[in-house]
Amino acid sequence: MLRTILSISGKPGLFKLVSQGRNAIIVESLLDGKKTPAYSRDKVISLNDIAIYTDEGEKPLREVLQLIFEKESGAATAVDAKADAAALKKYFGEILPSFDRERVYPTDIKKVIVWYNLLVSKGYTQFNEEVAEEIAE
Q: What are the DSSP calls for the chain, one per residue?
């Protein structure tokens, strides 16, 4: 599921991959449902390719989102993404105690919280789906 959910630099929210064209991909905004092209000059990254720095290395975003989902029992986060840096770090420390406090900035935590809340509000809750697919193969 997270392979088809994209972040596009400079554009708010997340996007779902709809189709591929010759010079662009067609994406649908999860915020308003509008379809737009994303070109090769746009910095597009799949949520499946994002990881969070920890003291032990990197933890895939899908695993972090799953940890938030389990902590919140499938509901929106208890902390608001607009909270101050100390509150964001405290909350993230509850989710992922080993996150690298020097390389993971409050803006990164804010983005993860915003993405999680958006995904859950749109019914995307199978964060570790890729792991299940790999095991099945």
A: -GGGEEEETTS-S-EEEEEE-SSEEEEEETTT--EEEEETTS-EEEGGG-EEEETTEEEEHHHHHHHHHHHTTTS--SS-TTS-HHHHHHHHHHH-TTB-TTTS-HHHHHHHHHHHHHHHHTT---TTHHHHHHHH-
In the chain, what are the domains? 2-47 (2.30.30.730), 50-136 (1.10.10.1650)
- The pTM for the full model equals 0.87
Per-residue pLDDT of the chain (137 residues; tens, 9 = 90+): 788 999 999 898 999 999 998 889 999 999 999 999 999 889 999 999 999 999 999 999 999 999 999 999 889 898 998 999 999 999 999 999 999 999 999 999 999 999 999 999 998 888 876 544 443 44
Which one-letter amino acid corresponds to residue 96? Answer: L
Amino acid at 17: L
